[in-house]
Amino acid sequence: MADPIPVLISACLLGEKVRYDGGHKLDRFLLENFGKIVRWVPICPEVGCGLSVPREPMVLKGDPASAMLVGANSGTDHTERMMRWAKVRLRELKSIGLCGYVCKKNSPSCSGIGRIDVIGDSGAVSGPGSGIFTKAFVERFPHVPVEEEGRLRDPAVRESFLEKAFSLHRSGTPDRK
Question: Mean pLDDT across the stretch 106-130?
């Protein structure tokens, strides 16, 4: 078989105990269905930026277009910390030639574009937002397909994701530039 396709993945989906509660979200479907054709590149932005395991749960607050990553109970703003780390990590990831990213549903750092609620100043949902890291990833790697783990169970979504990833891989991954 040809070289496996490098795909970024939320580390908790590989069974790494990096979640806020010290747990994981091992996704056997992904491992069984993608494991032979991809080389997983695990990432946990919250741990990567220096937050502990376990840690306070996080939420997105403010304007969905520029949401802040804050502690659900304390209100501590971790946005700048995350963005500083993401800038460095995205620069490092450039050399890998990523051809896809499988992110974690409902994660304030990793959820897909426009797929997580943002809490407004009133305490009500102000609209759909994107995980802080995922948003930065898409801005840096606009041609790399991004999908949440659960959506990949849909055959049409899975086929589209894999087609885009294979195309990028065959083309020499233009996002290495």
Answer: 92
